[in-house]
IreB family regulatory phosphoprotein
Amino acid sequence: MSDTSQETMMFKRNPDNKSVDKTIEEVCQALEDKGYNPVDQLAGYLLSGDPTYITSHGDARSKIRQFERYELIEELVINYLKERSQR
């Protein structure tokens, strides 16, 4: 039998943290500055949790690790849905 819970988990945003979307923008800029594809690098980090996907340039690695991965994914989904509804 699996030890995985069948109950739904509830995540709540922490409004005291620096803006997640601003952090994502800064991290993407740092990745671009170093010649990396931000989409590939962020996807690798979000899927694996391995911080080495994010450059330390511009303190990007430390900035992104301020947030849980689910917070980053949540922000990306929110922005995607906003953009989609404006079409």
